[in-house]
Amino acid sequence: MEPEKTETSEKQNSDHFRSEKYSMDSFDVLGTLGVGTFSRVRLVRSKDQSHMKPLALKILKKTSILKMRQIKHLRNEKEIMEQLDHSFITKILGTFQDDYYVFFVLEYACGGELFTRMKKLGTFPAQDAQFYIAELVLALEYLHDKGIVFRDLKPENILIDRLGHIKLSDFGFAKAISDGKTYTMCGTPEYLAPEIILGKGHGREVDWWALGVLLYEMLAGYPPYYDDSPFNIYQKILLGRLIFPPHFDDVICSLISGLLEPSIQKRIGYKQNAASELKNHAWFSNIDFSSLLAKECASPWVPELMSEDDTSNFNTYPDSLDQPHAPKFTRDRDPFIGF
Ligand code: ATP
After folding, report:
1. From atom 17 of ligand 1, which residue's Cα is the shortest distance away?
2. 58 is in an annotated binding site
3. pLDDT at res. 298
4. Ligand 1 centre distance from Cα of residue 196 (Å)
5. Fewer Cβ in 10 A, N or C end of the chain?
6. Residue 324: its pLDDT value, please?
7. Does 120 share its domain with 262?
């Protein structure tokens, strides 16, 4: 069933997402990798013989984007992603649109979300957490140097590539702020810095706060401030009573306390050379950041795949009839068949 085509959608169909390079005919559509608030992300394979690698296709329904007033956000996501070229950030290869959908063509991170890995393991060994956090320091340093704040750091938005390195993904909340501040409240409750909740304006320090939450969650198995209701989470974040599990050592406690410092001026990440301050912290004393950037350090986990199209590191999703979908047989087929 095609979604409703509206007059507004036609008016708003600027050339922004148009492309000479891609159309739906460029791809064979395979399974679903994930679903977001406005999107479904599918594994696709280019029909171009010279580029047969599987790719991820993020598909956004125009009527939903219009209803939720997300056009500006989407353009922003595209414009930001197009500026980025970093080993630890998902690359966008192009965008295109038809009457009903906007499509983002992305490189495929076959290892799934760090979130899935975390749920499977319960907690990460400190050495594994150190590897992922150190790669994130480099990704965030790169973004901040470009004047971009990410604003949605959480394990669901960290994907793992073929060799086990991270790929930061989902730039829906990212914003170019240079050295300024932004005021919109957005993000995920458990990961919000106090200044976002207070609405006093926030800058790139919120990403370092979120990194502290992530590090805590990776090692403890739960975030530092949590509750069933977002309101109570905000209260706890503002109260700032940080309690560490007994197995956290002094070095890790000092790093997390520095990142989860309520005062922005005292937080690790406030200074201009924030990333250097972090890299020099005792917890990273055994990390060679240049080798890490060159992907010369062995990753803690390399995804085991049956084939290039193997999606076993992702959850399974029922197919959707109202978005370009995979032929029925592709969802349940044995990964050995047909490759
Ligand atoms: P949200 O509502 O959480 O903001 P969204 O609509 O912006 O989501 P994404 O987070 O970009 O969508 O994608 C949804 C899911 O699809 C991801 O969590 C991930 O599991 C999967 N996914 C997205 N991009 C890729 C990719 N490049 N490679 C593999 N899987 C991906």
Report:
1. 34
2. yes
3. 94
4. 23
5. N
6. 59
7. yes
User: 138 and 76: one domain?
Assistant: no
Question: pLDDT (tens digit, 9 = 90+) per residue, 288-308?
Answer: 999 999 999 999 999 999 888
Domain count, the chain: 2
Q: Which residue has the tokens 């200074």?
A: 271
Instruction: Say how many Å lie between the CA of residue 61 and the centre of ligand 1.
Output: 15
Is 241 in the same domain as 148?
A: yes
Intervals of the chain under pLDDT 70: 1-20, 179, 319-339
Q: What is the mean pLDDT of the chain?
A: 87
Token digits for 25? 């005919």
Q: How far is CA 54 from CA 50, 316, 337, in A?
A: 12, 18, 16
How much is the pLDDT for 15? 61
Same domain, 48 and 181: no
Asked about 25 being catalytic, the answer comes back as no
Same domain, 253 and 285: yes
pTM of the model: 0.89
- Domain housing 93: 3-110+308-333
**What are 224's two structure tokens?**
């530092």
Residue 35: in which H helix or E strand, if any? strand 27-35
Q: CA-CA distance, 155 to 213, in Å (whole number)?
A: 10
**Residue 43, strand partner residues:** 56
Examine residue 301 and state whether it is found in any structural domain, yes or no. Answer: no
- Residue 298 counted as domain residue: no
Nearest CA to ligand 1 atom 12: 36
Residues 161, 194 within the same domain: yes
